[in-house]
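Handout, section B. The chain below has 99 residues.
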Amino acid sequence: MPEHRVEAEILHTHPCLPGHFPGRPVVPGVLLLGRVLDALQAWRGTHWRLQQVHAVKFLQPLLPGERFEIVLHLSGTRLDFCCERGAQVLAQGSWELGA
């Protein structure tokens, strides 16, 4: 199963952060998932699209400006992913992809 790793960061200046949550912004889970899809498309091509979500778990919050790693495992059209900050798993899941 091919694996791909990429470093990522959500900057403090991202437009969704001021409302999520005022005074102590936390990166929304949907933004993490968007970065997972961006990482997949940068690795394997922009023709890949999310068809079905098998599972997604958000386990730890990510603060703006914190660096994290996206780990992708692709087997056919199944993508297993994990977002990690050091030894902590922030989010993990499994998607079905289509072209």
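Note. Residues 23 and 89 are 25 Å apart (CA to CA). Compare this with the example in section A.
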